[in-house]
Amino acid sequence: MAIPVFPICTETIIGNAMVIIAYKLQRSISKQVSNRYIVSLAISDLIIGIEGIPLFTVYVVNGDRWPLGAIACETWLFLDYTLCLVSILTVLLITADRYLSVCHTAKYLKWQSPTKTQVLIFLSWIFPAVMFGLMIYGWSFLSGGTGG
């Protein structure tokens, strides 16, 4: 089970790292404000490749049992759920950005700015982090019981 996961992790990490590096090195790519969404997606997917897939593999190989303790479990769940939702929200932002740029070009060009793009990206990271942080780390407090 663990051996087929290695190429998937490697491809995920290398592919997304290449996107980030290209954005940093190629001026023509980084000049387009909408490419910031692509970089945000690459960052979230890179982190999933680094921590999400390998730790899920540990869980599955261990017979659907978590061998690394409660804190590591909560942290893995927080990161995995948060990053997956960030990925989904970023794809939604990319889709909306492309739609608006094609179907409402004049209004879109007047509306779009680096600041507005950064705010949308920031919100796409903060919303999932707060939501899953409260649910995962605050579960024992909210439920009145113990975690796990």
Automatic annotation (TrEMBL):
GO biological process: adenylate cyclase-inhibiting G protein-coupled acetylcholine receptor signaling pathway; G protein-coupled receptor signaling pathway, coupled to cyclic nucleotide second messenger
Mode of membrane association: Multi-pass membrane protein
Keywords: Cell membrane, G-protein coupled receptor, Membrane, Receptor, Transducer, Transmembrane, Transmembrane helix
Cited PROSITE patterns: G_PROTEIN_RECEP_F1_1 (PS00237), G_PROTEIN_RECEP_F1_2 (PS50262)
GO CC annotations, alphabetized: dendrite; plasma membrane; synapse
Residues spanning the membrane: 6-25, 37-56, 76-96, 117-139
Domain G-protein coupled receptors family 1 profile as annotated: residue spans: 15-148
Entry keyword annotation includes Ribonucleoprotein: no
Compartments (UniProt record): Cell membrane
Major localisation: membrane
Molecular function GO terms recorded: G protein-coupled acetylcholine receptor activity; G protein-coupled serotonin receptor activity
Family under the similarity heading: Belongs to the G-protein coupled receptor 1 family.
Name this polypeptide is given: G-protein coupled receptors family 1 profile domain-containing protein
Origin species: Panagrolaimus superbus
